[in-house]
Amino acid sequence: QVQLQESGPGLVKPSQTLSLTCTVSGGSITTNYPNWSWLRQPPGKGLEWMGAITSEGSAYYSPSLKSRTSISRDTSKNQFSLQLRSVTPEDTAVYYCAEGFSIWTYWGQGTQVTVSS
Question: What whole-number distance in Å separates Cα of residue 6 and Cα of residue 32?
Answer without folding.
Answer: 19
